[in-house]
Amino acid sequence: MARVIRVLILGGTAEAVALAEACAARAGIEAISSLAGRTRTPILPPGEVRTGGFGGAEGLAEFLAGRGIDRLIDATHPFAVQIGAHAKRACEATGVPRLRLLRPPWPQGPGDRWTEVADLAEAARRLPALGRSVFLTVGQRDLEAFAGLDLWFLVRTIEPPARLPLRRAQWLSGRGPFAVEAEVALLREHGIDVLVTKASGGAATYAKLVAARRLELPVLMVRRPPPPRGPVVDSVQAALAWLEHPA
Ligand code: NAP
Known about the structure:
Layout: E1 5-10, H1 14-24, E2 29-35, E3 48-51, H2 56-66, E4 71-74, H3 81-94, E5 98-101, E6 113-117, H4 120-126, E7 133-137, E8 152-157, E9 168-173, H5 180-189, E10 194-198, H6 207-214, E11 218-222, E12 232-233, H7 236-244
Helix pairs in contact: 1-7, 2-3, 5-6
Bound molecules: NADP nicotinamide-adenine-dinucleotide phosphate.
């Protein structure tokens, strides 16, 4: 009988959940999903789920060895830099093959008024020249960069930020998928004249960009950090193929 392949999926994304679902439907693949534990009500994948940090690359390496993990798939968010670096180091130390599952970036289309910026600090520097009422969707842990600005912010995050470090702001709870009509209505209702977002990609939060295009609003798009060296795929199907037929 063929041996079961045990894979650790580093998650916190819709793709990680979809991959765990695909693994659950395959005989011969056993997936353990790992969540950082940032959201109180995460969307749980099927199968075993563990929550919380590993304690750095060394802790992750111990987990890989201790649980007899055969493969690791890093399906975390495109902006989750630290866990990706730890996964690379831990896999190199233990000899566990690693794959990065990275969702494709959003395509820029006709009518889009995007300005790509290197990081949140550059977004904050360029923002006052573009508008006064800002729709800020960079995540609850990345608001600090905008703290010094005398602008009005509509901040949307899944969980309430521990602290809203902005002078004038309103917080809105929201988890995708969002619909275009509702996004257009939201931007109009709050008199938004500029958007700031990370180049996260993914269908769930794309509607705000379609809404911005319709309303001809500028968008400050924070570029993705480069992934750690190593094999990268951009779909769950390709990740499954890697599990079933490793290079
Ligand atoms: P990060 O900066 O790359 O990681 C910080 C630390 O959090 C890691 O060193 C690790 O702690 C722990 N960690 C991160 N992801 C983990 C996982 N899947 N399982 C176990 N521990 C994990 O990560 P982040 O940007 O804070 O993101 C945290 C989680 O939220 C990720 O799983 C990511 O997929 C998800 N997420 C992030 C964003 C974003 O914009 N960054 C957006 C949506 C979802 P130890 O060193 O102790 O192991």
